[in-house]
Amino acid sequence: MKFSINVPVFIVFILLYLSYAVFFQFNHLTQPFYSFSKCGDVRAENHVRFLLTRLLRGRDLEEVNKNGISCVNRLPSVFCVTTGDVRIKTGARPIVFLSAGQQFSNGTTFSIKPYPRQNDEAAMVNTMSIDIVSHVESNNGIPMCDVVHVDPAIVFSTGGYSGNFFHAINDLIMPLFITTSDFKSRIQFVIADYAPYWIKKFSQILSQLSAHDVVVASSSYFPVRSRVHCFPGAIVGFKYHDTLNINSSDAPGDLNIMDFRHFLHQSLSLKNAPITPVAGKKPIMVIIARRKSRSLLNENEVAHLGSEVGFDVRLAPPSRLKNVTEFSQLVNSCSVMVGVVGAGLTNLVFLPKNAVVVQIVPLQLNWDARVCYGKNPSEKFGLRYLEYHVRLEESSFYTQYSKDHPVISDPNSIKRQGYPAFKAVYLDGQNVTVDISRFKHTLLQAYKEVVSVNRSMTS
Ligand SMILES: *[C@@H]1O[C@H](CO)[C@@H](O)[C@H](O)[C@H]1NC(C)=O
Ligand SMILES: *[C@@H]1O[C@H](CO)[C@@H](O)[C@H](O)[C@H]1NC(C)=O
Ligand SMILES: *[C@@H]1O[C@H](CO)[C@@H](O)[C@H](O)[C@H]1NC(C)=O
Ligand SMILES: *[C@@H]1O[C@H](CO)[C@@H](O)[C@H](O)[C@H]1NC(C)=O
Ligand SMILES: *[C@@H]1O[C@H](CO)[C@@H](O)[C@H](O)[C@H]1NC(C)=O
């Protein structure tokens, strides 16, 4: 390629640069300066460096300052941060080349599956390993850049359990928020195990975190061309704060779960309807319906009961939950969400504040109900929570097993066989038919909670 300098264009450039500089001078006291930093100038570089190193503390921070790269390998987080240039080769086997002489404190290569849940074998089977190789290892075989990017990269995988809504939120959207929100969209997503439907499904949320089109590192959906993308720094993997948790004392600091909620609601333009009944309108109750397992077999009766109690009832089958943009709007207009233990309940993140979550808990699923799906998440997201415990006669076990079968008489013997055995029986092999007269008390309680909320609280 041949370059010639076009003098008028050059002058315009200088003027533009000067106006930026002047603008910056006047604004730096009141505005964060990333809004004004532009490609390549020293301030922008320092700022990128600052944002990258914010993810590290103590020895890890010392290490990145000394070596240009630091890899954290302590659960729940496994990730690397480099403040120097990297070249990422896409294709069947993506590789991250450290092209600015960065050295690992130990060895010349680090392999990482860029997804949380590092000790979860099933999740890791669906996640590809990415090699990060130092100058020494690549033996000067660092490839030339095909595409040069101005912002740093975050490399992660949409394999794992991304297809499950709880995991999509907990394993990907939330760690992405923790790891990248400080970059104010000036970060480039580089995605391994790229799942096109997943990116489309969450595009409205993802586009709030990165201003750029995604770079596909690898995919099992289509062949990925081998190209070399160059970046001024990178994060490989996530800073992860563990299950549905954001620890404001931990790096990068100053983020909490309500920030995350606010981020989700803003991304999806949710307006947060008042949850109390307003003039002539009944409060809306959504039933998250499941079909294959933990199915509420008398969901129509429950819907009817809801109307009788005073709700405007919406029965949401799994197909309804697929479009996040649409379904989050419905959830955001609801006062009550009802459902059996399961990932669909994670849609509670879209409820207006003080709404009521009613979780129906089948036999032996108290842990799941508390940690993953209803109880703890409701508390964290500022919601109220009611729990309905299924009795043996309401569980499909009642007809599936005799009373002295270990599944009923000795659940611990099933637990001792390991999680897959437990899951097969209690999570995948159980349906529910709630006792309508008993469940009525729970729905009446939910209704009472809804009408008692003072509207001024529901901003
Ligand atoms: C260095 O790396 C090797 C293998 O890559 C690993 O087994 C060892 O534990 C590491 N040592 C330290 C001190 O991190
Ligand atoms: C939050 O992070 C800080 C700093 O890393 C740590 O000391 C503290 O134990 C964490 N708190 C929880 C509840 O995990
Ligand atoms: C979801 O629904 C919205 C509004 O109806 C529509 O514009 C959008 O294309 C749908 N998204 C997907 C991924 O189907
Ligand atoms: C649970 O219900 C679904 C239908 O909703 C059915 O396909 C499945 O076989 C049932 N499972 C059991 C264990 O009865
Ligand atoms: C809500 O509270 C405000 C003052 O805190 C009060 O003026 C108002 O009457 C209350 N509304 C309801 C519906 O209780």
From TrEMBL:
UniProt-annotated location(s): Golgi apparatus membrane
Signal peptide feature range: none
GO cellular component: Golgi membrane
Topology versus the membrane: Single-pass type II membrane protein
Keyword presence, Glycoprotein: yes
Transmembrane segments: 7-26
Positions of the Glycosyltransferase 61 catalytic domain: 165-358
Recorded metabolic or biological pathway in which this protein acts: Glycan metabolism
PANTHER family named in the record: GLYCOSYLTRANSFERASE
Name of the protein in its database record: Glycosyltransferase
